[in-house]
Design a protein that fits this description.
With 162 residues, the protein is mostly helical. The protein has two helices and no strands. Helix 1 (9-76) packs antiparallel against helix 2 (86-158). The longest helix has 73 residues, at 86-158. It starts with 8 loop residues before the first helix and ends with a helix.
Length: 162
Amino acid sequence: MSDADVRSIESLDELRQAVDRLGERLLRQGHQVRAVVGRAEQHFARDYPVYWQSQLRRAEQRLSEARDRLSRKQSTAGSGSSAPATDERKEVARWKARKNLCRERIERARTVAVEMEQNCEKMKGPVADLIELAEVSLPNASVRLATLIARLQAYQNNLPPT
């Protein structure tokens, strides 16, 4: 420590306190990022596909109901006359399109879920490193600084007055 130029022990203590605060903030941010990654993974692996599965069931049910209404409309008209069932046909077409859209989204959800799982896995390593830094490395550095500060204070107290 012969070339060290420490002018103030208090400044070292302020540094130690700043390291402690940094550790606390990094730990909090690390846990928040980990939670966001977990929620994103859950959303794309479970929530998104479940939503489109429920929409598919709904579309299938409504398509069946629309076909029933179209069938009833056509049967009440009789064989000789053609009653316009334009609205019913449009509704059947609309629910068929919705059913196809739901199937496409379910397929897309599988692809997106795999991509998101891969991306989330890539994030988990750096987040774990950040949390380890906050839980282990920074507290160790703070303890080392506290030890150095205590030694410097002891040395300073043992100096003869000038």
